[in-house]
UniProtKB/TrEMBL annotation:
Top-rank taxon: Eukaryota
InterPro entries: SGNH_hydro_sf
Alphabetical list of SUPFAM superfamilies matching this protein: SGNH hydrolase
Species this protein is from: Rotaria socialis
Name the record gives this protein: SGNH hydrolase-type esterase domain-containing protein
Length: 102
C-alpha cells in the first residue's frame, strides 16, 4: 500500500564512483522499484546538497562539482523515467557536523 517513495541517496556513490556510475545505479533502482511496486503513484529523489566540509579523499570543490553534475544527470533521468526531483535547498545549518548528511 505504498503511494509514494522519496529517495535520498547517492552521496557516497558520487564521491566514490563518480556521477556517471551513480546515475546508472539510480536508473536501475527506479526500474526495480517500479517492478516491485507497480501501483505506486509517485517517486521523488532528493537532489544532492552542497558539500560544506572537505573529506580525507576529496576537497569541497571536487565534491561540489561531482554533486552538480549528478544533479544535472538526475534531471535528465527524472524526465525520461517520470519522477520528481526534490530540491530541499539545504544549507550548512541543516547539515550534520560532517558537512555532508542532512
Amino acid at each position: 500500500n505504498v503511494d509514494f517513495i522519496v529517495f535520498s541517496l547517492c552521496t557516497n556513490d558520487v564521491a566514490n564512483y563518480g556521477p556517471d556510475i551513480a546515475i546508472q545505479r539510480c536508473r536501475h533502482l527506479i526500474e526495480r522499484v517500479r517492478q516491485l511496486f507497480p501501483n505506486i503513484e509517485s517517486l521523488g529523489w532528493l537532489a544532492l546538497s552542497p558539500r560544506t566540509k572537505p573529506s580525507k579523499l576529496f576537497n569541497s570543490l571536487e565534491i561540489n562539482n561531482s554533486n552538480i553534475k549528478f544533479n544535472q544527470l538526475l534531471q535528465n533521468v527524472a524526465k525520461a523515467m517520470n519522477f520528481e526531483i526534490i530540491n530541499a535547498n539545504l544549507q550548512q545549518q541543516h547539515m550534520h557536523n560532517d558537512g555532508l548528511h542532512p
